[in-house]
Amino acid sequence: NADANADASASVSASAEDSIRELELELEVGGELGEGIQRSVSKALNECVGALVTRLLFLQKRAYRENPVKNQSKKRLLFGLNEVKKSVRLGKCKALVLVPNVETGVSEIAETARQIVRGCLDKGVRVVFALSRAKLGALVKRGVRMSMCSVVDYSGGEEEFKRMLDTARELSRPPAPLSLEQEEEEEGEG
């Protein structure tokens, strides 16, 4: 059973990496994504993003219960293509959480997603690939699938935000070249 879970996890990670590469090719930014975008998705990153979104949603809902009028100007997370696009354009977006399985079949959605990612790259906003459309929608508890989320204000969730960025940064590094000793060990195994 553990082997089946490992195989399923590996296939999910492989399909996520394929989706990221596909988006990379579609963006046409010199054949490479910006330095700030990771090349793969990990379970640890998904957990960090889940913790951040859950924490910020809790704080946002609590603020709304206390003062609904004041909360309208103090949102922490924005969902939906138009809201996210507006936050990036106005420079309010601190980080973009983008699911690797964005709907590329619908040309308007795919083009808007490309515009948003380009805007983030131009403004130096961190783009983090994590979760899936269903998992992001489940975190928000709206009963719909979501493709992206803009982190506008992470106050109260600084620790989770920093952990998410650190984990994504580690995944964005190219794999370290094998040392001579590691190469000899691999040749000996094969």
UniProtKB/TrEMBL annotation:
GO cellular component labels: mitochondrion; ribonucleoprotein complex
Gene3D superfamilies (alphabetical): 3.30.1330.30
Acidic residues composition-biased segments: 181-190
Domain of life: Eukaryota
Region described as Disordered: spans on this chain: 168-190
Transmembrane segments: none
Pfam families: Ribosomal_L7Ae (PF01248)
Ribosomal protein eL8/eL30/eS12/Gadd45 domain sequence ranges: 69-155
Database matches in InterPro entries: Ribosomal_eL30-like_sf (IPR029064), Ribosomal_eL8/eL30/eS12/Gad45 (IPR004038), SECISBP2 (IPR040051)
Molecular function GO labels: mRNA 3'-UTR binding; ribonucleoprotein complex binding; selenocysteine insertion sequence binding
Entries under PANTHER family matching the protein: C2H2-TYPE DOMAIN-CONTAINING PROTEIN, GH01354P
Full protein name: Ribosomal protein eL8/eL30/eS12/Gadd45 domain-containing protein
